[in-house]
Amino acid sequence: MTNEDVFSKVQTALVDALGVDDDEVTPEATMVGDLGAESIDFLDIVFRLEKSFDIKIPRGELFPEDILTNAEYVEDGKINDEGLAKLKEKLPFFDLSEFERNPVVQNFANILTVSDICRYVESKIGANQA
After folding, report:
1. For 62-119, what is each residue's pLDDT tens digit?
2. Taking the CA of residue 80 as centre, how many other CA atoms within 13 Å lie in the half-sphere pointing to its CB?
3. What does residue 75 show for φ and ψ, rounded to 5 degrees?
4. CA pair distance 68, 62, nearest whole angstrom
5. Distance of alpha carbon 90 from its chain centroid, rounded?
6. Is the pTM of this model over 0.85?
7. DSSP secondary structure string, the chain?
8. Cα–Cα distance for residue pair 15/9, rounded to 1 Å
């Protein structure tokens, strides 16, 4: 499966889950800011990705609530250095550089892009790097 195949299936899953148009689902589009995803939508997105790619997405693997809500990693609404290290370890397919500059928990969902989801799926299925 090529990167284009993965993007196409991710795009379809997001269009179906979020009720957006195909042309809105670009690689750079953010899940929350551009596509309007809400926390409840992420469950639907995970379900659709699992079904579309025949993969299992463990709870918290794609959307790490366990880190984002843990008092050990969150101080005054921001992820601390230990929490950032955990996020990087758990989410190697995400570009967290922008989030690191201002790691406010509420902003985490705003940095998640369609490309991040595609890279995650590729890591799960071992897609060819085209």
Report:
1. 878 889 889 999 999 999 999 999 999 988 888 888 899 999 998 887 888 999 999 9
2. 9
3. -130, 125
4. 12
5. 12
6. no
7. --HHHHHHHHHHHHHHHH---GGG--TT-BTTTTT---HHHHHHHHHHHHHHHT----TTTSS-HHHHT-TTTEETTEE-HHHHHHHHHH-TTS--HHHHHS-BGGGHHHH-BHHHHHHHHHHHHT----
8. 10
CB 17 within 8 A of CB 41: yes
CA-CA distance, 15 to 89, in Å (whole number)? 29
**CATH number 1.10.1200.10 is the correct assignment for the domain at 1-57+112-130:** yes
Q: In the chain, what are the domain boundaries? A: 1-57+112-130, 64-111
Residue count (the chain): 130
Kindly tell me the burial class for residue 69, based on how many C-beta atoms sit within 10 Å of its own C-beta (0-12, 13-18, 19 or more). exposed
d(CA 95, CA 53): 23
Residues linked to residue 113 through DSSP beta bridges, in sequence order? 30
What number of other Cβ atoms are within 10 A of residue 37's Cβ?
Answer: 20
